[in-house]
C-alpha cells in the first residue's frame, strides 16, 4: 500500500491510497492515479513523483525531497524508512498546448487542444487523441502530420519526434498545424523501417 498526495489532480482530495506491488514503477503509479481519477486523456509525461523523507536522528527533524525517476519503485523506497517518516507527492511538469486537427476520427470535430510535456512523443500524442474519443483503435493505425497550407508543406512525424518542441520552433505558428491522419495500409510499417 502506498499513499500518494495528489492535490495536483483533485484539489479537494488530499491523498489516494494505492495497492501496488513492489515491481510497480513511478510511471506505473502515475498512470494508475490518472486512471483512478478518470483522467486517461491527460498526458502522463506531465506528472512525476517526489518522495518526502523526514530524518529525526539529530533531534531536529530534517526534511529531504527527492524527485523519483520513472523507473523508481515506490514500495521498495517506502520500505527503507520507518512508517510515517516518508510520503509520496504527485507533481506536475510544465507543458504546452498542442492543437491536433482530428476530423479523421469524428467528422464534425475541428481539433483537440492537448496539454503535453516537452518529452511527449508523436506516438503518445496520437494515443492521447484516441483516448479523448474512447477509441479502441491502435495508435499504429494513425500518424501525426506537420502541415503548413501556405507553403503546401506536410510531413509525417516519426513516432519518436516531440511535437511540442517542433511547434516551439515553427517560424510562424499561425501558419502551421498538426493533423491526425489514418495511415494507408503498410505506411506506418514503412516509416518505422526507414528510421
UniProtKB/TrEMBL annotation:
<dbReference type="InterPro" id="IPR029071">
    <property type="entry name" value="Ubiquitin-like_domsf"/>
</dbReference>
<feature type="domain" description="Ras-associating">
    <location>
        <begin position="94"/>
        <end position="185"/>
    </location>
</feature>
<protein>
    <recommendedName>
        <fullName>Ras-associating domain-containing protein</fullName>
    </recommendedName>
</protein>
<dbReference type="GO" id="GO:0007165">
    <property type="term" value="P:signal transduction"/>
</dbReference>
<dbReference type="GO" id="GO:0045743">
    <property type="term" value="P:positive regulation of fibroblast growth factor receptor signaling pathway"/>
</dbReference>
<dbReference type="Pfam" id="PF00788">
    <property type="entry name" value="RA"/>
</dbReference>
<dbReference type="GO" id="GO:0045742">
    <property type="term" value="P:positive regulation of epidermal growth factor receptor signaling pathway"/>
</dbReference>
<dbReference type="InterPro" id="IPR000159">
    <property type="entry name" value="RA_dom"/>
</dbReference>
<feature type="domain" description="Ras-associating">
    <location>
        <begin position="1"/>
        <end position="91"/>
    </location>
</feature>
